[in-house]
Design goal:
CATH superfamily of the largest domain: CO dehydrogenase flavoprotein, C-terminal domain
Shape: globular
Radius of gyration: 15 Å
Number of strands: 9
CATH topology of the largest domain: Enolase-like, domain 1
CATH class of the largest domain: Alpha Beta
């Protein structure tokens, strides 16, 4: 994932902590934090990733609190598929699928104002971990972003396609 984020300058100077503290709705790292059950270590406490990302550009960090480190759980297998905006390279949609021993997590970035878990995909993949299990999935697009780059309906369809590719990459 890290090798495909932004451009050369961003990859060589940007940080994981800076990316998640900024919590851009289209950033890639927040989806990794969610999918890999990360624990974010700050200057004051430890925060589960699921509770860290609050809203668009909003996190659980307090005013003078800093991200000091991030611990990730190692899954049995995982894959991240991003459909990038051609100009910015940020994700119009990014899907991170992680198959852990106890659960499957599907984290989505770029589609809503904040990274989130897609329970519909998780359920289908828990029953049958294959790209084909998502063939008939029609996601509700009513809360998805819509802009000049992609409508909400198009983003919903991109999520399904990206999830299928991510699952295929896990094999």
């Amino acid at each position: 994932m890290a090798g495909h984020i932004g451009d050369l300058q961003v990859r060589n100077r940007g940080t994981l902590g800076g990316s998640i503290a900024n919590n851009d709705p289209s950033a890639c790292y927040p989806s990794a934090c969610i999918a890999l059950n990360a624990t974010i270590h700050t200057s004051d406490k430890k925060i589960e990733a699921q509770k860290f990302f609050k809203g668009m550009f909003e996190t659980a960090l307090k005013k003078d609190e800093l991200v000091k480190g991030v611990d990730f759980m190692i899954p049995e297998t995982s894959s991240y598929v991003k459909i990038p905006n051609p100009a910015s390279r940020y994700a119009m949609v990014g899907v991170y699928i992680a198959k852990h021993k106890s659960e499957i997590i599907c984290a989505i970035t770029g589609a809503q104002p904040v990274v989130y878990r897609c329970k519909e995909i998780e359920k289908l993949l828990s029953d049958n971990f294959s790209p084909e299990s998502l063939n008939d999935l029609n996601l509700d697009s009513s809360e998805m972003n819509s802009d000049i780059h992609a409508s909400a309906e198009y983003r919903a369809s991109l999520i399904v396609s990206a999830a299928q590719k991510a699952v295929a990459n896990c094999k």
